[in-house]
Amino acid sequence: MSQAPKRSRSTRLVHMGRVPTPTYGFVNPPVHRGSTVVYPNVAERDARRAHPFDQVLTYGAQGGPTHYYLEDAIAELEGGTRCQLLPTGLAAVTTALLAYLKSGDHCLVPDSVYGPCRRFCDTLGAQLGIETTYYAPEIDAPALRALMRANTRVVYAESPGSHTMEVQDVPMLARVAHEAGAGLLLDNTWGITFFQPFEHGVDCSIQAATKYIGGHSDILLGAITTATEDDWKRVRSAATTLGQYASPDDCWLALRGLRTLGVRLEAQMRSGLQIASWLRDRPEVADVLHPGLPGAPGHEIWKRDFTGACSLFTVELRQDIPVQSMRDMIDALDLFQVGASWGGFESLVLPTTNGITRTASGGKARGPLFRLHIGLESVDELIADLDRALSHLAAGPARA
Ligand SMILES: *Cc1c(COP(=O)(O)O)cnc(C)c1O
Predict the structure, then answer these.
(1) Are 285 and 279 in contact (CB under 8 A)?
(2) Could you tell me where the beta strands, DSSP code E, fall in 119-238?
């Protein structure tokens, strides 16, 4: 047996400790971080690169085991075929649009869409020669058919809409889109687990995994799940061509978040509905835009298509309450911190009155609006906090 040559420190530093990573019986898989993938020989390299769409490691930018575990899990959660991870929810939105649209195509987007999606359509999308028409989120089939053009390739949906919470008739959107040979893309972040997109005709479902999947306000992550393998290849190809890559550490945290997603959602749904219903009875409140609340806007479609609700909703104050009074009321809250994003364990509040852009529909709210995300705090203490802060509002005439 030939004796191993004595290597230099620098060479040993490069080679030591690089063992394969079995789990040793631990419950969770390790985080696999990596850029370069090394092959035992050239033939093995060729063999692996012959399968660009399989979960075969060729280079870190195509993802690794930590990504694959999470992609498989989210595909199952969404009820789709396969999933592609992206570094943020917004990257999932824009990459999905780029995967389905090319120069000269037309796209229909709801007026209530997440603001940065509108920004993409109006700037980069327009620069690339993709034309967007905004439609009222509660559109019916004849009106939608009237907006479809020969070059309409995508109907985009987000249900409920950001801030104003309009519930969309997704099965109808799917029918009209498919009649015209267009695809239906849905931002399903709010509907996580409660809306099964592929049972309602969606071709491509987008998740900001940053929200409830992460669940702890400490990661950014997006996911696109598709109905078919062909749709997935289109998305996967766009993501890898653009060099979009999610951090394996964030993927690992998202896998950890998934383990408690069910109990978090159940608890937050219960608290959210309790607080929404309490708020609706307050004299300062004109309306509570929570689709899960009986009688609220969109409740009938929600009841037909969803099996539950997350804990994000919007409150419309009486029209005679000045916006400044609402801002003071928000500042008086103790347990609700002012902040965007949602889906974490903590309660949040955000004034939304001035943040809504509308070009195709007016939006129904006339009083000042604020959005609440209900976290995992005691619901009684959250209600007491809201009760105390609402008493700061200028006294006005009682609700009609
Ligand atoms: C937050 C959000 C996104 C974007 O997610 P990020 O990870 O923050 O980029 C997309 N869609 C909706 C509806 C969101 O609320």
Answers:
(1) yes
(2) 131-135, 152-158, 183-187, 204-208, 222-226
CATH class label, 261-390: alpha beta
> 136's torsion region: left (phi>0), alpha (psi -120 to 50) or beta?
beta
Domain ranges in the chain are 9-259, 261-390
pTM for the whole thing? Answer: 0.94
Q: Are 131 and 107 in contact (CB under 8 A)?
A: yes
Bridge partners of 350, per DSSP, are 371
In percent, the amount of the chain with pLDDT more than 70 equals 96
Residue nearest to atom 8 of ligand 1 (CA): 89
Position 396 pLDDT exceeds 60: no
| Rounded Cα–Cα distance for residues 57 and 214 (Å) | 25
**Ligand 1 pocket test: which of 97, 156, 211, 219 has the largest number of ligand atoms within 8 Å of its C-beta?**
211
Q: Give the integer Cα–Cα distance in Å for 99 and 107.
A: 13
Which residues have C-beta atoms less than 6 Å from ligand 1?
Answer: 88-90, 93, 114, 158, 162, 187, 189, 208, 210, 220, 222, 341
**Geometric angle at alpha carbon 228, from 225 and 230, rounded to 5°:** 105
Pairing type for strands 348-351 and 337-338 reads: parallel
For the domain 9-259, what is the CATH code?
3.40.640.10
